[in-house]
Amino acid sequence: MLIRHPGRRGVIAGGAAALIAGATRGARAAAPSFKTVAPGVITIANSGEMPMISMENGKLIGSDAEIVATIAQKLGLGVVSAQMEWSATVQSVKSGRADIMVGNMGWTPARAAVLAITDAIYYAGAFVCMKQSQPFNAAITIADIKGHSIGTVNGFTIVPEMKKIPGTTEVKLYDNSDACVRDVVAGRLDFAVLDGPLVDYMILKNPSWSLKQVALKADAAYPQLTSKQHTVMGMNQDNHDLFDAFNAGVKWMWKTGQNAALMKKYGIVNPDYLVAPEPNLRIGVDRDAQGNVTGPGAHTPKDFSALFS
């Protein structure tokens, strides 16, 4: 099982790139010509983690991967996976060795300073993994954790705040997410706070475990533990046309509900993934109040919406 780190977004080493998924000849004829690293394809920098992106039997799979491929097809482009360590993905896109980076990528001001960042494709919030028999469904609060044990992976950024929760019976730290989840299954741990999409995928693949994930309500006293992110795609700031076309594709995804459908395919089903956090921290950094691109990547955008009609 591949493990992710909340807030850091990835720790896995990669392998060779693999070309997949060409667009139809008709789509290529209809779409304008876009500048890409490799002619005719979008090169995706990623760390190969499910349920967001991975290779299976020579094919690219995962929620984020299929979102990219669906938009790319409308642009007359195929897709290529360039798998690498997560720490290398930003520089790969910034330097022009890859066209886009994905993988439950969270928006941050630092990333907005060096990349052109699309609108959110979904919003990955804080979730608590628990048995289906637990009496929490729509949401759980910090106060609800009193009287229960809670766990996560040793070294995760949320650990200090978890240790401050009053009234917990125990705070347990594990070497990896698998071990933590398996203790929930076995009844040795009441709640686990891990990477939401990863646990959703584990639940999808193991229905006999009888687990669920419940959204953890935001609490200003626990900003790391309860924060919710804009999950986005990062692109090169100099390739304005490709960015504008992809951002038009993201808007089309929301309009048609295709992002939600592709997420559901990989077990990312909680409706909270489709609810934007408030306030929008991007305003004043790389977006204005009307949603226009500002900051280092600001430019006069081209309208590519006709490609998605």
Please tell me about this protein's structure.
This protein is of the alpha/beta class and 309 residues long. The chain has two domains: 18-123 and 229-308, D-Maltodextrin-Binding Protein, domain 2; 127-226, 3-Layer(aba) Sandwich (D-Maltodextrin-Binding Protein, domain 2). The protein is 27% helix and 19% strand. The chain contains ten helices and 14 strands. The chain has helices at residues 25-30, 63-74, 89-94, 109-114, 159-162, 177-186, 196-205, 223-226, 240-256, 258-265, and strands at residues 18-20, 41-46, 54-56, 59-61, 78-83, 100-106, 116-117, 127-131, 139-140, 149-153, 170-174, 191-192, 211-216, 231-235. The strands form four sheets. A six-stranded mixed sheet has the order 1-5-2-6-14-7. A three-stranded mixed sheet has the order 8-13-9. A three-stranded parallel sheet has the order 11-10-12, with helices on one face. β3 and β4 (59-61) form a beta hairpin. It starts with 17 loop residues before the first strand and ends in a 44-residue tail after the last helix.
